[in-house]
Amino acid sequence: MQGNNGDYIVIKAKENGVNVIGLTRGKDTRFHHSEKLDKGEVMIAQFTEHTSAIKIRGKAVIITPFGQVDTEE
């Protein structure tokens, strides 16, 4: 794993209205970016010096360097 400077994840929405929310790094965790995906849309997200976590709401497939996660499981 590359740490905080470059790891990517792929998010594919399995339904309309999947929310992808970027959370900040630092002493206070805050939302800093939000996207809404419709069924079939794909987003590639990157962890950076400002993004420490990504929250996904809704049915989606997430592909990471560690494997694939399906939110329906």
Secondary structure elements and pairings:
Elements: E1 8-13, E2 18-24, E3 31-37, E4 42-46, E5 51-57, E6 60-64, E7 67-70
Antiparallel strand pairs: 1-4, 1-6, 2-3, 2-5, 6-7
In short:
The chain has 73 residues and is mostly beta strands. It has one domain (8-65): Sandwich (Immunoglobulin-like). It contains no helices and 7 strands.
Overall description:
The chain has 73 residues and is mainly β. The protein has one domain: TRAP-like (Immunoglobulin-like). It has no helices and 7 strands. Strands 4-1-6-7 form a 4-stranded antiparallel beta sheet, with no helix packed on it. A hairpin with a 6-residue loop joins strand 2 and strand 3. The model has no long low-confidence stretch (mean pLDDT 87).
